[in-house]
User: Fold ABC transporter ATP-binding protein from Sporolactobacillus putidus.
Amino acid sequence: MNVIDTGKDIILSMKNLTMNYGNGPVLKGIDLDVYRGQIVGYIGPNGAGKSTTVRIMLGLQQGYSGEVRLFGEDIRTSGVAYKQRIGYVPETAELYDTLSAREYLIFSGECYGMDEKRAERKANMLMEQFGLSGSIDARLSSFSKGMRQKVLIISSLLHNPDLLFFDEPLSGLDANSVLVFKEILARLASEGKTIFYSSHIMDVVEKISHRIVLLANGQIAADGSFDDLKEQNKEGTLEEIFNQLTGFHEHAKIAQDFVSIVEEV
Ligand SMILES: Nc1ncnc2c1ncn2[C@@H]1O[C@H](COP(=O)(O)OP(=O)(O)OP(=O)(O)O)[C@@H](O)[C@H]1O
Assistant:
């Protein structure tokens, strides 16, 4: 099977997507079609434009040119209904600290059009799966980082979306929870959900992604399965491929200089 074109529906499509905040181009013409059921690992150096791309697709960022289609519809003209089919875990999020997890999840489910009873029932069950039943009525201000992240993950999935955007979703999760979450991703994809997964944790991206898209200098520098990239770049791990494709070979020198400066008397 060709992982780039599975012959299924195109769920997400960008054509010549460009963005400039005013200080030069951030995205320089991105063309990408993502198919139903794909897990796309979206990687790139800090500042490459990953979050910008995601914010544009979510309809949160104006001022771009080119075309973005989700579920076949141009997001400039399709209204906001498509957002009910999307789940999103942002890199950083402000939760409503004065709400309990139960209240927050009901509120979040209702924003996605769920009725209160159904949102509460699913929230209860999903919190239990993450081992958080005992905390469901505690205020979010008392939650640890990992607990908050689990609430965010549940809130992104409560309404059973078709398309998921995850930006560093593992942040703060312990090793057991990471294992569960990776398995959840694989199952969601096999059920036909499409997952756009942005992260700097290369060994996870390497393992979970059907397809890896590397953004560098506002352009797609690589696009293929991990095996494709490994073959093209003659490197062993995604971290090494990333270093090679972004032209980075100086880690030892930078570390040495950094420590010398730290130790300067
Ligand atoms: N609201 C904004 N106004 C001006 N410039 C911005 C804005 N948001 C992002 N940028 C710039 O756009 C570029 C891409 O930023 P973006 O956040 O999309 O990168 P990223 O690939 O998600 O980075 P990271 O891996 O560090 O999260 C950066 O140079 C950043 O300074």
